[in-house]
Amino acid sequence: MGKILKNSWALFTGFAILITAHGLQGNLLGVRAVLEEFNYFSTGLLMSGYFVGYFVGANLSPQLVSRVGHIRVFAAFASMASLSSLIHIVFVDPIVWIFARFLTGFSMIGIFVIVESWLNDRANNRTRGKVLSLYMFITFFGFAIGNLLLNISNPIEYEPFILISLLFSIALVPILLTKKKPPKFKKTTTMKVKELFKISPFGSFSMFCSGFLFSAIFTLSAVYATIMNLSIFEVSILLVLITLAGAFFQWPIGYLSDKNDRRIIIILCAILAVIFCFLSIAFSGASFANLFIENMVKFNYFSTTMDKGKLFIFITLMSGMILPLFSLNLALVNDYISKEKFVAAGAGLNVIFGLGAMAGPIICSALMYKFGPNGFFLHLIIFLFLIIVFGIYRMTKRTYKDNPDSTFTPLPRDITPLGIELDPTTGADLSNTDKK
User: Fold this and answer.
1) Do residues 80 and 107 touch, judged by C-beta distance below 8 A?
2) Cα distances (Å, whole numbers) of residue 294 to 306, 368, 384
3) Per-domain residue ranges of the chain
């Protein structure tokens, strides 16, 4: 591990600063959108703008890196991300913010591609598992710190946006000053959606639904918490708990999935997440329009006042059940293919995930408009229910296939195919990069 840090300290330092700024920006915008009284539809479009930019950038970034090199593209994208933060404070308008979020998504995917290809070049077949673990730790730690930075100033002021811009700019310094030569960019192949669905209908469908789930959790949790009149400190703590749950729950759930039919684990996670969603609704103290929860409240099944302690616990547990789904779906698809195709399958599943993620915030915000803030949980329940029903159906159609080459690997939510290649189980040959 010491050698890895010595060879890649500049990359990890720059990325840690950058991911901290990224974690702060996304949730700051959610809080600010509520304070600016943006309507639900505008807020949903705003949050979806990031994933549209992310999806577009995923297709264009590799071409740019191949044409002008890693360092120039990294500098350009970090500068663009810094610029997008400043746009938010100069033009406080939903339409302008949608465009700015598009720029952020476009920039961030380019940065992730560059960082992960650089890590591939620094790793070899003995160290890539450690590199991936360190990368995951920095990603989740950076997001957690970014969420805590919500407390440095009032979100209605301009200072937090200036800080984000500064962090994006500072992240450039260690990477631009490193003496290490940038790697030669290697493109990855992608499996078509139709082929992936044929290989694993449930894994592909669950990944599609996961896009709707993840995008809502990571963009509208701050909106939900602010509407529920939580203080900025309480909002930041809740977001940190969500982020850490996504990290720490992956290992025990992954262990169980390697020992059992992975489809059962996915279904059980979805069932438990639905239960925790209903419990979160129950202890939120907010009305759920005309749905049956309101009638249960009237009959004293639940309290009509918010129990913040229990609300935080159940939202954390809910996140802990949902956020490992990306890695579970990836491992499930890998159960039905050879390890040589793992990276290509991961690239295709990223496309499927992105299609759901682009629409997730829009649908979730529409449900929040229709049913109040607890429409956030209704959105999650709908797509979790679809995973449960389709999973049970598929279990009656196909027996589980145990693939010794496929194991669960905890992964960050923004991982690209180049990052997936760091997983030792993919069979990617990185042995000739040891000289780095």
Assistant:
1) yes
2) 14, 15, 21
3) 1-186, 188-428
**Max Cα-Cα span within the chain:** 69
How would CATH label the architecture of 188-428?
Answer: Up-down Bundle (1.20)
| Among candidate residues 19, 39, 23, 20, the one with its CA nearest the CA of residue 223 | 39
**Confidence tier at 381 by pLDDT (50, 70, 90):** very high
- pLDDT of 242-293, one tens digit each? 999 988 999 899 999 999 999 999 999 999 999 999 999 999 887 654 444 4
Assess whether the region 1-186 and the region 188-428 belong to the same CATH fold.
yes
Among candidates 416, 342, 418, 410, which has minimal Cα distance to 121? 418
pTM for this entry: 0.89
Q: What average pLDDT score do residues 346-350 get?
A: 89
More confident residue, 426 or 44: 44
CB 232 within 8 A of CB 153: no
To the question of domain 1-186 being in CATH 3.30.950.10, the answer is no
Structure tokens at 144: 């957690």
